């Protein structure tokens, strides 16, 4: 069974063909330009691949309500060329195959739930920390949707008493994305994260903010596993700092086997940075079930 996968990111699109076992058989990347430029390239790639279905995990916000007139649209994105764009409809019209659709981070959570660290569990969350911060939620065996979808990268945090940085989010002065994303690290410290690896104070502050968000997710969603990925999380020294800060913030209130084994509860992404595209393969597969 050949399945198409499209991981539609804000800066690049990853296009792949895989099988029902999550194996990636072919893959290319193209820059995310305007729909007029980008979508014909997507269609051309998949047109002769004989795929039975396509899964799309997209940057958002997106409309996931199948009863909505704008289901399958990218909606109020700051990427104005893509605002209110029917990405599912335009691609489906040309490829004429079933299309599964969700957010890019929900797709990554699904990848981890199907083949990675969340496999076999009824719940888990995937957090990407990179150009932005996003949270995919797998709950009771399915991806979490509501009136929209989780936008938990924008949870509001308490700023560190020594931090005078204004944040980079245009909507919130103190949300997690604004204070802890890759661009916020670069703007605060005047260097890219990769050049700051030996600066202990950088990662202590980063962990302070990420741990606040994670503690809130534990208290509200009670996931069985928390997986962290994205470019910033390649700084592996963050993991012990985050774990100890989360334990400190919970302050003994949540007593579970998972919290007691925190090193195996808050973990790195397990699929070699393929969790997003593998989740898109599973979205495609689910359209055929």
What report would you give on this structure?
This protein is of the alpha/beta class and 289 residues long. It is built from nine helices and twelve strands. The strands form three sheets. A five-stranded mixed beta sheet has the order 3-2-1-4-7, with helices on both faces. Strands 10-9-8-11-12 form a five-stranded mixed beta sheet, sandwiched between helices. Helix 1 runs parallel beside helix 2 and helix 6 crosses helix 7. The model has no long low-confidence stretch (mean pLDDT 97).
Task: Tell me the domain tally.
Answer: 2
Strand order, largest beta sheet: 3-2-1-4-7
CATH architecture of the largest domain: 2-Layer Sandwich
Main β-sheet description: 5 strands, mixed
| Element string (H = helix, E = strand) | EEEHEEEHEHEEEHHHEHHEH
Helix fraction bin:
25-40%
The count of strands amounts to 12
The assigned structural class equals alpha/beta
What overall form do the CA principal axes indicate?
globular
As residue ranges, the low-confidence spans are none
What is the beta-strand fraction?
A: 15-25%
End-to-end separation: 13 Å
| CATH class call of the largest domain | Alpha Beta
